[in-house]
Amino acid sequence: MRVHLYNGSLGLVRRSGVGQAFYHQKAMLEQAGVAVTESWDAHADAVHINTVLPDAVFAALRARMRGETVVYYGHSTMQDFRDSFVGSNLLAPLFGRWIRFCYDLGDFIITPTPYSQQILESYHLKKPVCVLSNGVDTDFFAPDPARREHFRREHQLADDQPVVVSVGHYFERKGILDYIELARAMPEVCFFWFGYTEPALTPAHIREAMAVAPGNLHFAGYVDQAALREAYCGADAFVFCSHEETEGIVVLEALACGVPVVVRDIPVYEGWLSDGREVLKRHDVAGFRAAIGDILGGAWPDLAKNGRAAACARNMKALGQRLCDLYRTQGKRPA
């Protein structure tokens, strides 16, 4: 079996969760023994489409003309488009209609969680929506005391300095405003935010809030996966204040690295992450602050171990086999 991972516009989304999902799919397939191509030169049994940009529409139509199964990945919803880029709220209804059109070009749609499946099915799509996690490389993202030491040495942090990390674009949806307030409320803790959004695409009120952020909050910008892994390993807690996700690849990465994780209590985590077992779920800045204090005080000793186990349940090899099963049950031809 051969699968074509369509890489058009990959350069535009490489630094996002969609870009990471592309590389995860490649790893899943290769570990499952599936031949992978990024070229139209050879016939493929299935073509993966990950974006909803205009070129992806032409790719889906081309694949259908060639008789190839189109697997459309439902990474985006109208809900998680809101509160992101400049003008996103105004454009959200149009974006909703556009993604319905795009997703219906697939023979089937894959989305990472039952929550996002429920949202996509509420759009009355004509094609079946299947659930498969984006997964995480639990060999690459893993606990490592040496990486913790290197991160702290690089950032000139004492061994006993409390450190909290988060990752994402400069989006209100990602909870950046709450994260800024959290840092302000805990001046004794060193906070890092990894990720970057072009200023022209960042709403003015976000730029203004960042400009007056407290000195214990460091906007570290975009870093590669190896540096991000060190940040997870070097942190005492990973706090993800996002208001809306279809899964949250960075949450999986942090869990895999064995760092205690605090998330906002939103529906996407229901059924696979439990409060007080794999993560702590809180609603607001006061809750996040209390959760961090509990973690730093040693109140949840099994959180990191249980979180790592949840990430390992979504390792690449297992998900590759499940993806192959979806080809067999949903594709145009047996694998």
TrEMBL record:
Ranges for domain Glycosyltransferase subfamily 4-like N-terminal: 43-139
Record-annotated Glycosyl transferase family domain positions: 148-296
Matches recorded under InterPro entries: Glyco_trans_1, Glyco_trans_4-like_N, Glycosyltransferase_grp1
Taxonomy of the source species: Bacteria, Bacillati, Bacillota, Clostridia, Eubacteriales
Name used for this protein in its record: Glycosyltransferase family 4 protein
Origin superkingdom: Bacteria
Source organism (scientific name): Gemmiger gallinarum
Gene3D superfamilies found in the cross-reference section: Glycogen Phosphorylase B
